[in-house]
Amino acid sequence: MNNLTLRPIGKVCNNENGTYIKLDKNYIPALQALESFSHINVLWWFSDYDDAPSRAELQTEQPYKGAPSVVGIFATRSPIRPNPIALTTVEVIHIDLEEGLIQVAFIDANDNTPVLDIKPYTPSFDRVEAPSVPAWCSQWPKSTEESGYFDWSEVFNF
C-alpha cells in the first residue's frame, strides 16, 4: 500500500466574529468561482482524536439512544475512527477572495481544526431524493438547516 500525504489547506476558525474557514495563502486562488454556490462540502481532520487508541476502535457501545447495543464505527459520525476524516456540508455566508476566508453558518469542528479539502455542494452528486436510515435515527432532522435547531443532547448517550 502506498503512503498517503495529506496537506491541510487551511483551518477552522470559531470566534466571537463567527465561524470561518481560513485558507493558507497558497490556496486562495482555488476559491475562484466558488462564491456562486450556497453550500460546500468541507473535508476536515478530527485532529483531537488522531491517536492510536482512537484509530484502533472499530465498535462502540450504543452511542445513540435506541441504537443497537453495539454499533460499528462506520455506522456512526464519531470522531473515533481508523482515519479521523470528517465531512460536513455547510452553508456559505460570505467568501472574502482577498483574505481567503469563507464565512459559514456552522461547522461541527473545533477552532484550529485542519481543513483538508473543499468541494462545492451540487444536488446532482450530493443530494439523495429518498434516503433510508435505521429506525433508531429516523426521528433525527431531515436537513442540515433543521439540525441547527435540534436538541442533539436527547440523542447521544455520551
TrEMBL record:
<dbReference type="InterPro" id="IPR040372">
    <property type="entry name" value="YaeB-like"/>
</dbReference>
<dbReference type="InterPro" id="IPR023370">
    <property type="entry name" value="TrmO-like_N"/>
</dbReference>
<feature type="domain" description="TsaA-like">
    <location>
        <begin position="6"/>
        <end position="130"/>
    </location>
</feature>
<keyword id="KW-0808">Transferase</keyword>
<comment type="similarity">
    <text>Belongs to the tRNA methyltransferase O family.</text>
</comment>
<dbReference type="InterPro" id="IPR036414">
    <property type="entry name" value="YaeB_N_sf"/>
</dbReference>
<dbReference type="Pfam" id="PF01980">
    <property type="entry name" value="TrmO_N"/>
</dbReference>
<dbReference type="GO" id="GO:0032259">
    <property type="term" value="P:methylation"/>
</dbReference>
<protein>
    <submittedName>
        <fullName>SAM-dependent methyltransferase</fullName>
    </submittedName>
</protein>
<dbReference type="InterPro" id="IPR036413">
    <property type="entry name" value="YaeB-like_sf"/>
</dbReference>
<dbReference type="GO" id="GO:0008168">
    <property type="term" value="F:methyltransferase activity"/>
</dbReference>
<keyword id="KW-0949">S-adenosyl-L-methionine</keyword>
<keyword id="KW-0489">Methyltransferase</keyword>
